[in-house]
Design brief:
Strand content: 15-25%
Structural class: alpha/beta
Order of helices and strands: EHEHEHEHHEH
Largest sheet: 5 strands, parallel
CATH class: Alpha Beta
Number of helices: 6
Number of strands: 5
CATH superfamily: Response regulator
Shape: globular
Helix content: 40-55%
CATH architecture: 3-Layer(aba) Sandwich
Distance between the termini: 14 Å
Oligomer: single chain
């Protein structure tokens, strides 16, 4: 079963991913801070995480610094940024190079499923 880590300080977003993608055959792990994200990856093992969906604006270390740590420590871990700050991402070439894709909020869950099917784990249940 593919394992996805969703990192967002919004409990509604985490619940939405968990509820909908669990029905699609994914195991969903969640974290509400960058620090918890890093602990979850360490606990599960980076080789066991198929993708990380990461919000950029969170309390604590925040998504931007978490992204940079993830890419430094786990170069091959696919990361999709989910954020309400889409205009920031349009201007940030450095972040665009580090991620598989970014998805502005509010997002359509079908778009998330499509990213998973086409860019992260080809051949999954459609």
């Amino acid at each position: 079963m593919p394992k996805i880590l969703v990192v967002d300080d919004d409990s509604i977003i985490r619940s939405l991913f968990k509820r909908i993608l669990s029905d699609e055959g994914f195991e969903i792990l969640t974290a509400d801070t960058g620090e918890e994200c890093l602990r979850a990856i360490s606990r599960e093992g980076p080789q066991n995480i198929n993708a990380v969906f990461l919000d950029l604006k969170m309390p604590g270390s925040g998504g931007e610094s978490t992204l940079m740590v993830l890419k430094k420590m786990y170069k091959n871990l696919p990361i999709v940024v989910i954020t309400t700050y889409g205009d920031f991402l349009e201007r940030s070439e450095e972040i665009k190079k580090q991620v598989v894709q970014y998805v502005p909020k509010p997002f359509n869950i079908e778009e998330i499923k499509s990213i998973l099917r086409e860019k992260i784990i080809p051949g999954i249940k459609q």
